Amino acid sequence: MSENQHSSKSLPPSSNAWLQHIRQDVQSMQAYAIQDATGLVKLDAMENPHGLPPNLQLKLGARLGALALNRYPGERVNVLRKALANYAQMPPDFDIMLGNGSDELITLISMACDVPGAAFLAPVPGFVMYAVSAQLQGVKFHGVPLTANFELDETAMLAAIVEHKPAVVYLAYPNNPTGTLWNADVIERIVVAQGQQGGLVVMDEAYQPFASQTYMDRIAQHGHVLLMRTLSKFGLAGVRLGYMLGPKALIAEIDKVRPPYNISVLNCECALFALEHAEVFAQQAAEIRQEREKLSQSLAALPNVHVFPSQANMLLVRMPDATKCFEGMRTKGILVKNVSKMHPLLAHCLRLTVGTPAENAQMLAAFKESL
User: Fold this and answer.
1) Could you say which of 15, 39, 243, 368 is the most buried, measured as most Cβ atoms within 10 Å of its Cβ?
2) Would you tell me how many other CB atoms lie within 10 Å of the CB of residue 111?
3) What is the CATH number that goes with domain 33-48+279-370?
4) pLDDT band of 7, cuts 50, 70, 90
């Protein structure tokens, strides 16, 4: 066959023949959408609104500039693991592993627990990555609806555990996007039921800096519970650093699927620096908690507005027309999250991130004008 003959039978450059190599379920998915916040007050992603004080910026800059960027991450990562274990007051005989944000840890759990016929279970509405990660790994995901007030439906959860025998039950504590800190006794009965049928529980404490309770006090009582946290809500969303702790044997198995060098030297050093100045971030969290309560009271005083209780750095708010309010706020320079179509229970709801006092005042004014 001549070169010309071969070329004439080749697929044209515009052909989408390569799509046959992309999974059908992936083709039908929507990519995770990040809203464009250019020129807007960004209150849509539960970020800590406070930056580093100028003096700490200079110190961190000098420290990062001295790093050996030409080398792979080394022993310094283990220094960070130890520092995080001390900060979190990890129980004896437990271990800790790091992820590029909590998202990577969720992915690693899905990979490690992807046995034939496996299923994952979580209350819904909840963090979307539990379901997305399961789907991408080919694991069945079962969502159990919360009650109308976004509390755990204990009867439904226990029944689902019996029916589906999930490999993993995710419990966000507090929950996203509702901000709910669920009843501790209900959680304990779910944890026990999942353990009795041989499954794992992952307690996701991403919003722990803003909550009045933690499962850390009880985790040592169980050999099947993992506790996951992130430095994103601590104040380092841009650093992408999550961590998960649990019984040594359990962590060791999941750690086997972790990519080598998954935490960069920059991530690592930023996290260590932040832990050395933990009091600065603790003060920021305290201010956010105070602002959350002030903002909640102001919103609740408005007619036809319902504010749900929150133990996170966000407020879930229901009003007659969430889309109209969202668009109105956006035209006034305030970006929040319209969650009204994410799940039927979230109908007519917006999720508002708690910002600085000045940002919250702007958000409240725009909200009132946009109702």
Assistant:
1) 243
2) 16
3) 3.90.1150.10
4) very low
